[in-house]
Design a protein that fits this description.
This protein is mainly alpha-helical. It is about 70% helix and about 0% strand. It has 2 domains: about 5-85, Helix Hairpins (Orthogonal Bundle); about 85-115, no CATH class. The relative contact order is 0.11.
Length: about 120
C-alpha cells in the first residue's frame, strides 16, 4: 500500500538513525498498537457531530499524522517480516468472503460466528 519509493525513504530514515536495533517484531507490534491508540484517542468521547467538525477543521492534520504513524509502523513490520501487505490483505479478503457471505451479513454488524 505504501509505494516502494516511500518504503525506501522510510528504511533510509530508520537506518540513518540506527533504529533497526530497536525495531524487533515485538516492539514494532507494540508501537503499531500504541499509534493506533493515539489515533483512537482523538475520537474518544466525541459525538458524531464533534468528529465531523474536527475533520472539517485544521485538527484533521492531527488525524492524518496519527494515520501516518500507524502506516509507518505497519510498513516497517511488514518489511522486516517479509510480508507482502497487498497479498496478505487479498488473502484475508478471500477468507472474509467465506466468513461473511452477503446473504447472511448484509446490513448487520454481527460477527461471522453469530450470522
Amino acid at each position: 500500500m505504501i509505494s516502494s519509493d516511500l518504503l525506501t525513504a522510510l528504511l533510509q530514515f530508520r537506518q540513518k538513525r540506527n533504529w533497526e536495533q530497536f525495531h524487533t517484531p515485538k516492539n514494532l507490534a507494540i508501537s503499531l498498537s500504541v499509534e493506533a491508540a493515539e489515533l483512537l484517542e482523538i475520537f474518544q468521547w466525541k459525538t458524531n457531530d464533534e468528529v465531523a467538525a474536527l475533520l472539517a477543521s485544521e485538527s484533521k492534520q492531527q488525524v492524518q499524522d496519527e494515520v501516518a504513524d500507524v502506516a509507518i509502523m505497519l510498513s516497517y513490520l511488514c518489511h522486516d517480516l517479509d510480508i507482502d501487505l497487498n497479498a496478505a490483505v487479498r488473502s484475508k479478503l478471500e477468507k472474509n468472503e467465506v466468513k461473511y457471505p452477503v446473504e447472511k451479513a448484509f446490513g448487520n454488524s454481527r460477527k461471522y460466528s453469530e450470522c
